[in-house]
Amino acid sequence: MRGSDEMYASVPSPVGAAAELSWPKARVVAVRAGRRPLGVERCPLTDALGAALAEPLAATTHVPAFDTSAMDGWAVAGPPPWRLREPADGEGLAGQPVAEALDDGEACRIATGAPVPAGATAVLRREDGAAEPAAPQAGTGAGTKPGTKAGAKPVTTTTLRLRPGVTAPPLGRDIRPRGQECRAGEALLAAGTLVTPAVLGLAAAIGHDELTVHRRPTVELLVLGDELLTEGPSRDGRIRDALGPMLPGWLASYGARLTGLRRVGDDRDALVAALRSSRADVVVTTGATAAGPRDFLHPALVEIGATLLVDGVLVRPGHPMLLAELPTAELPETAGEKRRYLVGLPGNPFAAAVAAATLAEPLLRGLGGCPQAEPYRVRAAAALAGHPGHTRLVPVTLPERGAVPLRHDGPAMLRGLALAEGLAVVPPGGVAEGEPVEVLDVPCG
């Protein structure tokens, strides 16, 4: 079997192959590749999670749609004490029609979320009031208002008073006025906003059943290598696959919709067949990106006519990563409009995570219409050693004192990454203690 150097020298390069790029330049290439979102679709709320809004999210109604009680207690009109009106069936409960209007000096029971009757000036909290039987009025008989005709509306027979030490509620207290949160037609979220569970809740609250979103890029994950086990501990010279379980969640956090995971052995023809049969917008592969005797990704890309955009990045770990544009001749129904890409990740787990953060994240965010993540900087709590000519991505925790590097950050290790709150981007030469350093978020979903 030929040595790796000889093997690499004999492998033709896909069209567009170039020298290794710096880490910042490689990120720019990935951003440019995804600069045009794939398309727009209208989908039910339940299918929109993880997509990006393709248009501003506007309210279809006032929120709240009517004056609403913020507490359990009594709706009151005017100063105390109040005549407590006996409730009709369902009156004062959430989900029921609004109660009859209150006259000055009247009160009625009310529950949180119930519509506030006209005439109410405030809500008196349940713990602040006490209902007492009213004393009969002389000459009228208990429960009869002077001058009341037979069959007229019953008169309140109970008085609502403040408990000792409690002051009367000020005007409007514990009433959520109509339109307090938003008005009908008001734009609440901008196009490009990521649809999170909270966004889905807001969309429902303002009356939406569907959302117009950018189509999430479909991704097929190809896990390459004969040496990988799918269950149990490593044994007999074979190792447990860590990337198959790890990457789907990472890619989904970047906006991808995973359509499948295929395992492909160290066989060039099998890899070519897998690449040709995939219909995903983006194919993500693990392993076979370097120049080993069984690394067939480069020759497979040559065979299918791919164009390399990135072929190696000056970063540690993960430098043998690649980004390629795939041909669409096999897809005549979308030829000319369809754009397909391949992101090649190294086989070592932490190196693959670095490559995903470098190339997959900006590509997938762009294709899905989601704004690129804003970089942020924190102070280095300790010196971060650098490489003379390569950027380093270092797992860090982020306590108040700044970025603290974690151990176990070798290319094949995941222990440090599992504890990390971010990846510090350490430029060539390193970062001194107390100096600012850029940090990338670590996917957590």
The major β-sheet equals: 7 strands, mixed
CATH third-level topology of the largest domain: Molybdenum Cofactor Biosythetic Enzyme, Chain A
What overall form do the CA principal axes indicate? Answer: elongated
Low-confidence stretches: 1-11, 138-149, 332-336
Structural class: alpha/beta
Annotated CATH architecture of the largest domain: 3-Layer(aba) Sandwich
Number of helices: 8
- Our measurement of the CA-to-CA distance between the termini, rounded to an integer number of angstroms, reads 43 Å
Please name the fourth-level CATH homologous superfamily of the largest domain.
MoaB/Mog-like domain
Rg (C-alpha, Å) = 33 Å
Tally of domains: 4
Number of strands: 27
Kindly state the percentage of residues in helix.
10-25%
Under CATH at level 1, the class of the largest domain stands as Alpha Beta
Q: pLDDT average, as an integer?
A: 89
The proportion of residues in beta strands is 25-35%
How would you portray this structure in words?
- There is one protein chain.
- The protein is an alpha/beta fold and 445 residues long.
- It has 8 helices and 27 strands.
- The strands form 7 sheets. Strands 1, 20, 23, 24, 25, 26 and 27 form a 7-stranded mixed sheet that branches. Strands 8-5-7-6-10-9 form a 6-stranded mixed sheet, with no helix packed on it.
- Residues 131-154 have a biased composition (Low complexity).
Short description:
The chain is of the alpha/beta class and 445 residues long. The chain has 8 helices and 27 strands. The N terminus is likely disordered.
